[in-house]
Amino acid sequence: MTSPSTRRLLKESTDLQKNPSPYFTASPTSDNLHDWHFTLAGPPSPTPYAAGLYHGRITFPLAYPLRPPSFRFLTPSGRFEVNREICLSISGHHEETWQPAWGVRTALLAIRSEIMGAESQGQVGGMEGNEEMRREFARASRGWVCRECGESNEQVMREWWDVCRQRGVEVDVEGSEVEGGKKEAEEERGLEGPTEVVGEESASTPAPADPTSAYPAPAVPPAPQGPSTPAALSAALSTQPSTRPRPRPTLPAPATVAGTVAATTTSTEPANSPWLDRAIIGIVIALIILVTKRVVDVDDL
């Protein structure tokens, strides 16, 4: 049955292979999972470590990750003493600040970005030095060979950068274009060449490719000017009489309306005349009745 520490280290080793970082590589040196070696690219300019590649060792306690690992650099850098455990907030010198959620990736990124970019200031395992000395160490570090690994720092990182590119990770480390840089530049030029040819081909055939130039006349018809205007006017006047009869069909509309009104009035007048006659007759009869009544009343008196 594997211990929690072994399971954690196996998980971290697998994660570093599946999700590689172009800034460092780390793996167990042998069957002992508690002893790892790492190779780290120096922080970018303007630090004096920009061109450097540094090799070191990580030792994990049996209680890892409950207790922090220890780190030491094997490559001379002018920043840390060689093969001496360094004092970090994420190392065994400060167990009180260690968090079990941290791991190898977190520790190496912190060393690269913060620790190597600052001064030692009396730090255990640190050393003072001027920038020129550190730049010289950085240039020499690329060819430094680890006795146990048997490869130079540049060989290790060159192989690791190939792994990163295969996994789709962009490599933006200074000096990563050394050696295979010419080949990559030629490949880029080869890719740029066809694009330029395509541009020249498109420039050589501008007229057929433009859809607006296929029909220039209908787009903007020329206005009649100069001596051609009288002919155009006469042609327009000669064509107008043939098109004039169009408004005439609209003229019968009022006549038809008037006719319909007259027809309705004439048709309503005969219908209304019997009613008028009857009304007049009724009024006459009423007057006769009134007159006769008065005559009878007078006779009675």
TrEMBL record:
Lineage: superkingdom: Eukaryota
Annotated region described as Disordered, given as residue ranges: 1-24, 172-256
Name of the protein in its database record: Ubiquitin-conjugating enzyme
InterPro entries in the cross-refs: Ub_conjugating_enzyme (IPR050113), UBC (IPR000608), UBQ-conjugating_enzyme/RWD (IPR016135)
Gene3D superfamilies in UniProt: Ubiquitin Conjugating Enzyme
Biased composition (Basic and acidic residues): 179-191
Cross-referenced PROSITE patterns: UBC_2
Domain UBC core: 4-163
Bias-annotated ranges (Pro residues): 218-227
CDD domains: UBCc_UBE2J
Sequence ranges of Low complexity compositional bias: 192-217, 228-243
Alphabetic keyword roster: Ubl conjugation pathway
Cited PANTHER family: UBIQUITIN-CONJUGATING ENZYME E2
Organism from which the protein derives: Penicillium canariense
